[in-house]
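Weekly sync notes, structure subgroup
Attendees: PM, AL, DS (notes)

Item 1: joint prediction request from the bench team. They want all two components modeled as one assembly rather than separately. Inputs as received:
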Amino acid sequence: MKMLLEPILFSIVAGLFILLIPKRFRKVAEFFSLITSIYLFISAIRIFFVSPINAGYLYVDGLSRFIVLAIGLFGFLVTLYSMRFMSSYKDVSLYYTYIIWTIGASILAAISNNIILLLVSWGFLGFTLYGLINISGPKAASVSKKTFIIIGGSDSLMILGFGLIWLITKSLNLSDMKIDINTPLAFWAFLLIAIGAFAKAGAMPFHTWIPETAQEAPISVTAFLPASLDKLLGIYLLARLALNVFILNSFTYAILMIVGSITIIAAVMMALVQHDFKKLLGYHAVSQVGYMVLGIGTGNPIGIAGGLFHMLNHAIYKCCLFLSAGNVEYKTKTSELDNLGGLSKIMPITFFTTLVASCAISGIPPFNGFFSKWMIYQGLIEKGKSGGVLWIICLVAAMFGSGLTLASFIKLIHAIFLGTPSKDQRTKSREARNEVSWQMWIPAVILSALCIVFGIFAYKIPLRYFIVPALNTGLSFIGTWPSLKATLFLLIGLAIGVIIYFLGNFKGVRVSESYIGGEQIQEDMRLSGTEFYNTIEEIGLLKFIYKKAESGVFDIYEQGKSIVFGIGGFFQYLHNGILPTYLVWTLLGMIGLFLFFLR
Amino acid sequence: MILYFLCLMLFCVGLYGVLRKRNIVKMIIGLGIMEYAMNLFFVLIGYRFHGRAPIDAKDQNIFNMVDPLPQALVLTSIVIGLAITALVISIAIRIYEKYGTFDITKIKRLKG
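Output from the run, pasted for the record:
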């Protein structure tokens, strides 16, 4: 009990202390927050190795403790990364305060058993998210407001859902609950809490804050909250509901599966046509949530395990992708794919980490993304044994989405690292022909190493220590994937390819300029990756949908805004500012009251 | 009965002045008219035809007396009305100094 409360209390106190450090002692704030994050990471490891305890308000079981471990890891890596990345920002102690508080509140949310404690830490996370987006100044103000409204609104729905739970069970402890969802009250309670989890993780109707946050907020913030911690917590809550709190029926599972598949397809289609790599990654952060929701929606152990494993993997590779993108942006000062190109020679380490993480997110064996997606597919097939058509549609959506993910990452890799650099990029890279500093590439390298390790040793490390203890039952695989042997074969294949390359036509390779019919090649003529999928935008129906999506028709926030302003506009019209009009309204109201009360 | 109706008419004239006129001075005059209508109404309620003044004296039988209470109230109300008018006029003067107009529709600071 004391061990659980210690890091939370420490993070609050340390955050306040960092807030008090004046701006001149910037190094002190950075150093102290790094020490704090290391301490929090160590306590997270200690919490991970403790045996399951149930201490009233707090409890630790297999599900929550690997979440705590991941929170500690990401907190430490992002703090390390921020030491160099945030150097151009002024108000750095406020930033570190929010980061430290976020780690503490996330740990509290993951280990709290009492629903009020969970709600308090959940709401506090919304507040720190708002503050962290606001760090990048006035241009992020509208985005942070949007985020705050979506997260806060869904939080209020969640409070309503927990209120219904209290009405049903008369208990505030999550561990005591086992609610049958077949009554309407229980169904609405589940749906309302699931909305809170969806908004936090960014599933489809509530996803719109993520791409815009990715565009405006500092990249370290995006890598920290929407890409990793919010996913972990949102899916944690959903898994907790599905595993412990509720006994779901097939209708609820179908809702989850439909939400998941729509999220996968719609977000990946949006990601395909983006020109800003931060926004592209943001849409992928939405799309991958679909897999986790789909995995949990299958309702059988293998699918839920796949969803949880995918959540962990997603946090790892998406954090890695965002940190690598941050390196690129830090070096080139731009996030437009049109202006980039040819960075692989200048930033080899970043290129490597991005490549590994891109392969992982696209589900290429032997990386970790493949393994979890494979488990989710197995869950869907297992679900298909009980009949129905839905699982086929979902399976097709998931596989198709995976292919489109690969397509958009080919575009990303090509546009940033391969391809011909643009003109001003060439002049810029002549000035700085080196990798970013070690604080910035080490986190990305650690995360990409985790991608590889979790993929190759999937049975031995992550499944055995993290995922299976989280479930109450054992796992049984339908297919077989001997990951170690398969990796060996892949490596052998690669090696043979390299040998053939060197033996065969190594001498005969001739590098020449592009030939365009004898014309002189202009300086600005080049193939950036952004044109790859322009044809998709031109197809009739898709063109219509893209246009609608651009104008915010599918954005629940924009729609809500137009409703609120529509009602507000009517009252604004009534408020014409002329005093006699108000007097007339007052008089009419008085007459109405007299008629009502004195009749 | 017709007297009361006329009184109501007078009140409505004042209300019309307050609600419909744009000029602040005219509105104030309307306010004054409403006030007079109220006072008149009060006095009329307490009035009794062919009555006598409620003055108590020795060896006089008091019968058919006018109610003194509304009259006392109305006296007070007139004084208060005077104070209100003075306050409103001073505010109107300040408004004129600030905005340079008596037209109430031109003073739209309330519009959001």
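Discussion: Residues 18 and 27 of chain B are 4 Å apart (CA to CA).
Action: AL to compare against the crosslinking data before next sync.
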